[in-house]
Amino acid sequence: MNFSQRSYTPELLDRDDIPFNDIKRNMQELDFINTWLGGHGITLDGIKELLQTQKLERVIICEIGCGGGDNLYAVNKWCEKNNVAAFFIGIDINEHCIEYAREKNPSLNCEWIRSDYAKVMFTQKPHIIFSSLFCHHFLEEQLQKMFQWMHDNSSLGFFVNDLHRNRLAYYSIKMLTVIFSRSYLVKNDAPLSVLRGFSKSELKTILSGASLHRHSIKWKWAFRWLIIVKR
Question: What is the rounded distance in angstroms from the CA atom of residue 217 to the CA atom of residue 145?
Fold first, then answer.
């Protein structure tokens, strides 16, 4: 395997003919992975750092590529535990994902939007916009536009939680999914998503191309990058 360059092989999840029951199983297993390998914890690190910049009576937090809403649910649990009043916005282009997120999280104070994120117009800017395991689905030129959009549409800033392209990460997740996964999507896409992940220098180039110079890039276990851009 060549780990020096990103793979551009499409993931199965990027196809538009996958039955939703298969997508649902994929989202359930990804939530398990995020829970036990620290993915939700990385998202919370991004929330905490951006909230340090300003005290708010109520924070508006938006996730693009929200899938089944598991990340927002995890953030909400943290907000409730820490007495942070919050309103959430979940955006996903897949209408079935939005329906599933709405049904799964009926008590979440959230507006669910089925749309291409770039077409969404906010009546009030979210304080924080973030994405988790979303960016590796896109080309570098698309990511520059995405980061600019996230910056322009947030009042405190945005963060990205995504994959570090790494040999150990690839073979580890490949082995784990072969043993434990019951989803053909996860078995195919999880290792491939690592190959579509990023090196630190690639992220710096994307951020520079988007003219975003006030940023931090931190490596997190297990083989994730946390990119934070403050307004």
Answer: 18
69: left (phi over 0), alpha (psi -120 to 50) or beta: left
SS3 160: strand
Within-domain flag for 136: yes
- What CATH number corresponds to the domain at position 82? 3.40.50.150
Q: What does pLDDT average to in each consecutive run of 10 residues of the chain (231 residues)?
A: 95 94 94 92 98 92 98 98 97 96 96 98 97 98 98 98 98 95 97 98 98 96 97 92
Q: Strands, E, within 39-156: which ranges?
A: 59-64, 86-92, 110-114, 128-132
DSSP run (H or E) holding 162: strand 157-163
pTM value > 0.85: yes
| Residue whose pair of structure tokens reads 């649902």 in the numeric block | 24
Distances (CA, A) of 213 to 143, 157, 164, 216: 15, 13, 21, 9
1 assigned to some structural domain: no
Q: How many CB atoms lie within 10 A of CB 102?
A: 17
Q: Find the domain containing 98 and state its range.
A: 22-230
Contact in structure between 220 and 42 (CB atoms under 8 Å): yes
